[in-house]
Specification:
Blueprint lengths: L1 H15 L5 H15 L3 E5 L3 H13 L3 E5 L2 H7 L7 E5 L7 H11 L4 E6 L5 H9 L8 E3 L4 H12 L1
Parallel strand pairs: 1-2, 1-3, 3-4, 4-5
Amino acid sequence: MACKKYEETITVINTSKGYVSYRQQNLQQQLVKNNTGEKRILVVDDEYDTNLTLKVVLEESGFKVDSFTDPLAALRNFKSGLYDLALIDVKMPGMHGFGLSNEIRKFDIKVKICFLTAAEDTHYESFRKQAYPNYEENCIIRKPIENELLIKRIKSIIC
């Protein structure tokens, strides 16, 4: 009984100082996980730093993430019905993102696909509209993007 009282006192003190207790962190993480419903995302970006950043940000937001820097490796490991969303970089060596999405569609027509691009010009946008007229506007995400905005966009697409 004394231990429980001590824990409550520490929680109150830490909360008043702006700290979050370990227990509160776990509760917050559970809420995040419940909000995302354990959605699974495939990330394919040949830039290691971008790939790792996306993976960490998405996992911290409660998503399950599989990431690849090689589009061909991503394709070899792709499993139909496993992913709710594929985030694919447009410009990659070996296979561009639009080609990868075509291959993925052969295995899974339900997975949502969003393209990542750092291109400032509208070259990729016009190419996408011609080659993939069925993809919605929200399926192009420009890099760099703020973490909060990225999560908000992804949740609006798959949650």
